[in-house]
Structure formats: structure tokens, C-alpha cells
Amino acid sequence: MAEIIWGLATSHVPSIGAAMDHHKTDDPYWKPLFDGYSPARAWMAAHPPDVAVIVYNDHANAVDLDLVPTFGIGTAESYDVADEGWGPRPVPPVAGAPELSAHLVGELVDEGFDLATFHRLDVDHGLTVPLSVYCPDPGDAWPCAVVPVLVNVIQYPQPTAARCYALGKAIGRAIRSYPRELKVAVFGTGGMSHQLAGARAGLINPEFDRMFLQAIESEPEKLAALSRDDYIREAGTEGIELIMWLVMRGAMSDRIARVHDTYHVPASNTAAALALFEDLGEA
Amino acid sequence: MTKARDDYLLDLEASRRGYAINRLCGSLKDPENRRRFSADEAAYCDAHGLSPEQKKAILERDWTAMLDLGGSIFYTFKLAVLDGRSMQDLGGVFTGMSSEEFTAAMRSGGRRFG
């Protein structure tokens, strides 16, 4: 059967990708963030998954306001890298895992999670930056296939944190019921605190972020109980992306071990973090 | 320039009100549309059904007015990038700072509230 071997929570700020694409990771602005990634990257490179299930949000690239699915999942054999308005990132196209996608869709719909399915999906920085955080030098191809899972965090009302956590639990059960020997990593992306627009632009709340970084491991129910308004007030209008970390945490078993984490301000206008957890399996 | 509210939530009312602005800005993910917009901005606005206020906000690059008229930052940012502007530039606009002041505020740990 398939197993979840690790979970990665990471910010997906576009400029983190741009820093890698333009070879600026040793610049004083970026070096502390990328130094913070190093131990996690080394550990992940030693524990490569066959498939990464990447929970992210699109940013007006594959999804526009004509139709906003609250939850979606990619079911394609491959995904092109989106032109977000400034040309696609110079990274490889993303190979899909359509058989696992189909299994997940079937299991999740049967559990009451009616996800929209994407047969065509150009993936934007929300997905490719976390892949680059895992694998900075992919060469011609990423080292794993990917199942994209999309969450609407842009149009209000976003799904509740509790619903995201419950979706993650269902995704975890669905992965573990997949009847093939497959190592799976789950990525929860976005955050931490940030706000891009309005008079509170530039908001950073390190106390909330530090609390969240700790609780995502040991008290995810506490984070799942926070309201939409709690997230927006404390973490900013875009900090609500943190609900996607709860999908990752929900997919993992109760027994996890923190491998590494790092927290840095700023990446562009955002507090950036990474937290990596090994899944120790069901007790 | 327009003064920004604290927060902008893209709820369904704002999405409906800002549909034309967001559709125009979203279309700039296509390089051919970027070329057409740059060739004649006013005509491009008219072709996308912008109201007079929305068209004025786009042509004058009144970033806060775009938000007030239902624009989403994820859409209007595509226009900003076409202009060669950064999210720090826009952060400065929304908060009454220069880009340099806003960038410095971020580098010193960000802006704290409450």
C-alpha cells in the first residue's frame, strides 16, 4: 500500500522562486532564508518520494473569477508551468500521477468532499516554488510526480480551517488505501503572516506565526478551530493561506516527528517559514 | 490618490463589482494581450467593459481606487509587473510610504498591528 513518508509546510512567495531562478540565493537579502532551508533539503534529498501531493492555491492564473472551486484536484498526466504575466519560471513541466489522482477523487467524493477536477491546469508559483524549496536544481525533470490539490483562499468566504483539516484527514486515508507500493510526500503551502493590499499592507505577526509553527505539529485541532476572521485579523488577508498547512497536517498520521523548521522575515512582503515532519506511521 | 482601507476582502459583492477590472488584469497573463494593452490602453479598457471610474483607475494607475472598485491584488499585480513595479512599490502606495521606506519596514521585521 502507499505510505506518506513526510510532510512539508512551506511559504510559496514568488520572489523565493525568482531568487533561485536569478541566482540570488547568496545575496545578503536571501541568504538567511536559504541557509535555513539547507538541513531540510538535505534530509528530503535522502528521503525522496515517488509522488508529492501539493496543496496550494492558484493566483489568477489557471483559475479566474468566472468559476471559483472551493477545492480542486489535478487529474492530468502533466502540468505546464504558467505564464503569470511575466513569462513562465524557467523550471521543468510537472509530471502528474493520474492514477493516484483518480483514486483520490473516488475516495474523497465517497467521503463527501466534492472536489472540482482539473484535466488542464497550468501550475503557478503556488506549486512550483514549493517544488523548488524541495529540489533547487531539478535539471530537465522534477524528481517526483505531483498531484496538485487546490484550495480557494482568494475569494471570500474561503473554506474553514476545520474543513481543510478534515479534507487532509480524508486525503491521508485515501493515500494509505492506494493499493500500490508508493512513497508519498504531502506539501502544505502558503503563509505565514502577510498582507499585500490596504492600509495594513506589510503586516507581520511573529507571535502568531511562532504559535502556528509549534501548534501545527502538536495541536492542529486548536488551529482548525480558528475562524476565517481570526486568520485574517492575526495573519493578514493573505495569511489565511495557512489553512492549507492544515490539509497537509491532516493527511499525516498522529505520530510525526519534526525534522527541521525555519522562520524568516521578510521574503518580499511576507513572513516565510518551512517546517518538515517525518511521518512515523500509525501506532 | 485614493486612501486605502485597512483590509480588502474579495467577497462575492466585490468580485461582481470588480469583474471587469479583474478580467482585464487577469488577461495580461497572455503575452499577446500584454502587447495589445500596451498599444492602446484606453481601447483595451473599453473592450473589457470597464466603467468610467474603473477605466480612470487603470489609466491613472490609482492602485487603491482599483481595490475600492472591486479589484483583487492578485489581478492588479499583473498590471503592476507590466509597468515594472514591485509588490514593495504597491505596499508603499497603500501605506503612504515610498518604496524604499516600505522595503525598509519589511526588512526591519514588517509592520505590526494590535
From TrEMBL, chain A:
GO terms for molecular function: ferrous iron binding; oxidoreductase activity, acting on single donors with incorporation of molecular oxygen, incorporation of two atoms of oxygen. Coiled coil: none annotated. InterPro entries: Xdiol_dOase_suB (IPR004183). Pfam families: LigB. The lineage of its organism: Bacteria, Bacillati, Actinomycetota, Actinomycetes, Streptosporangiales. It comes from the Bacteria. Keywords: Dioxygenase, Oxidoreductase. This is Protocatechuate 3,4-dioxygenase. Residues 9-271 form the Extradiol ring-cleavage dioxygenase class III enzyme subunit B domain.
UniProtKB/TrEMBL annotation, chain B:
InterPro entries: LigA_sf (IPR036622), Xdiol_dOase_LigA (IPR011986). This is Protocatechuate 3,4-dioxygenase. Pfam families: LigA (PF07746). Keywords: Dioxygenase, Oxidoreductase. It comes from the Bacteria. The lineage of its organism: Bacteria, Bacillati, Actinomycetota, Actinomycetes, Streptosporangiales. It comes from Nonomuraea aridisoli. Residues 21-107 form the Extradiol ring-cleavage dioxygenase LigAB LigA subunit domain. GO terms for molecular function: dioxygenase activity.
